[in-house]
What does this fold into?
Amino acid sequence: MHRLVSVPDKPMKTRAAIVYELNQPVVVEDIEVDPPKQGEVLVKMVASGVCHSDLSVITGTILNPRPIVLGHEGAGIIAEVGAGVTSVKPGDPVMLTFVTPCGRCSYCTVGQPNLCATHWGAQPRGALFDGTCRYHKAEQSFYQMARVGTMSEYAVVSENAVIPVSQDTPLDKAALIGCGVTTGVGAVMRTAEVEAGSNVAIIGAGGVGLNVVQGAVLVGAAKIIVVDIVPRKLAFARQFGATHTVDASKEDAVEKVRELTDQEGVHYAFEVIGNPRTIEQAFHMLRMGGTAVIVGIAPSDANISIPAALFPYGERRLVGSMYGSARMRVDMLRLLDLYRTGKLKLDELITKTYTLDQVNEAFADMEAGMNIRGVILYE
Ligand SMILES: [Zn+2]
Ligand SMILES: [Zn+2]
It folds into this structure.
């Protein structure tokens, strides 16, 4: 849809979606934005996905300093670059990553930029590399969710957080690669490395879960069994390639998955909710030698209980997946290519669009299970 190649005007103010207090409506208001400093860029946002992790910042399940500008899944156009920036120039379309890799730490160096120590150890969380913020109002400074804060007309981010794409890229679709698509597809292709012909179970058919389904289809999984309690989401799952669906409000999900796999269990089970009980269920769905992958983010004080003997007896594995174990600068562009060649669904993920001022409506729709992905579009 977008072929924006003109360089936007330099703003002094930006309209942004801000969390001041937990569990209160998001405040949309104008704040001041600084120009980008050394190694930073100013992005004029085109689209921002509305992800469950944004809601987790509002509720405090994911704890962040406040006030904070929401949003971590987006795409836009470079409006201005700070000193020393060479990888992009004004007018370049870009996708944003929700982990800003430093490129030098022991994780980045061995090809795990999704685990960048500088990003996850950032103090305070939500500030840029130099520990300061670019958004202000009077005396107050504002943090940026995941050091991007895509729910703002303009965002100042590190050069390392933007991935340039070609001028003809539909940025409203590409925005989704910033979180949900890479997290879901990557969990299958990178974290678990699912082999063709494997049987897979997926618990949770939300925006990320459906991308786990897409990943399973891409690698040629045999049975793709999707578990949820919302019939609408199970219907979406079938549309995205699920071979079987299980309504866990009506039947026992573990028993049903065993029944569908000749009582053996699946080779891979993905938990995409972040609930201790469904994580345990994912583990109990495994056949011997199977791997359960935790994608969903549980509250930090939540614990799981699994019989310890089941790990050696049957060589079962339980692993976590963050950002689909992505090497963002490679994998996000590959996902875009899979979309361009018709192998990855992005259009179908977007079920409703909103203006930034409608952001609270977008979260209400999310809580009601209305959307696969709601997307905020900017002017
Ligand atoms: Zn997200
Ligand atoms: Zn790093």
